[in-house]
Design goal:
homodimer, alpha+beta, 8 strands, 23% strand, globular, DNA-binding
Chain lengths: 150, 150
Amino acid sequence: MFLSTATHSIDAKGRTSVPSGFRDAIGEDAAVFIWPSVRGAFLEGGGKALMDSVQREIFDRVADGSLLPEDAEAQQVMLMGAAQRLGYDKTGRIVLPDNLRQHANLSASATFVGLGNRFQVWDPEAHEARKAAMEDRVKASPLVMGIVRP
Amino acid sequence: MFLSTATHSIDAKGRTSVPSGFRDAIGEDAAVFIWPSVRGAFLEGGGKALMDSVQREIFDRVADGSLLPEDAEAQQVMLMGAAQRLGYDKTGRIVLPDNLRQHANLSASATFVGLGNRFQVWDPEAHEARKAAMEDRVKASPLVMGIVRP
DNA sequence: TGAATTCCCATAATATCCCATGGATTGCCA
DNA sequence: TGGCAATCCATGGGATATTATGGGAATTCA
């Protein structure tokens, strides 16, 4: 499970460390899958398990009629077509390709945000602003915590 | 799994490199299967596993009555009948036959787009236009990401 | 025999691996 | 509980391997 938030530096080679907790969540195949979000200037990602889930989810929805084949293909193009498999070395580092860096406006460092089954990568300042907005929204919505089924 | 997008040059002999990530996804039999799309000026393709899946899928749908035998044969003609098995050499290159090149209007380079269990091959500019359209479509349709079942 | 195709080698750019280091945290044991 | 040792983590730099691509030699086909 991808948990917590960590900011790591991006060195001259474009390398950055995947948070160690994320690596534990991924399992044996040492790689993350990252793609540009269609919803803003940040990256989305996960492990192999997430990619498999996405693929199955798209298939199932087309099969049960809740997603048009054209929409399914659009999502596949924007997700699978843009996603990169980034293997990390023994020290847990990936290299962020230029196109991903540019999409998220990443320069000296990157903020990894765990979201359970997936994670996001933000420019640190952009994430601060985003987080403030999220806090307001949470306060105005029905909180899950407190009424979770035991 | 076929992931990411890569544009590779087509040299004077008609050779182009299959993206290395695609080769990893294919396995031991060093070949891709490519055919002209019936939906537009691009190519569709995959590995041996995809061809087997397509064949089984067609069979199953005929068996459960959701596909007419005549339609099944039509699809077989346009898919199996048009598909080419293109083996790649030690450096990962295939030669794109003329009929495929012409169908997709390929000249100096080809863009490979991973779509999970399959991929597409586009002329680079055509793919840019297509991708923009896909992005609009994605923004207007229910996103799979974010609500993937854990 | 001529044209096309396949195979093989070369190369520059890039990505990957490997070792080293410092800082912080954790664990252990008195 | 306090302090020392060991471990883990993030990061830097250099060495190695891979990739994409060009060109030539060998082979096949008509």
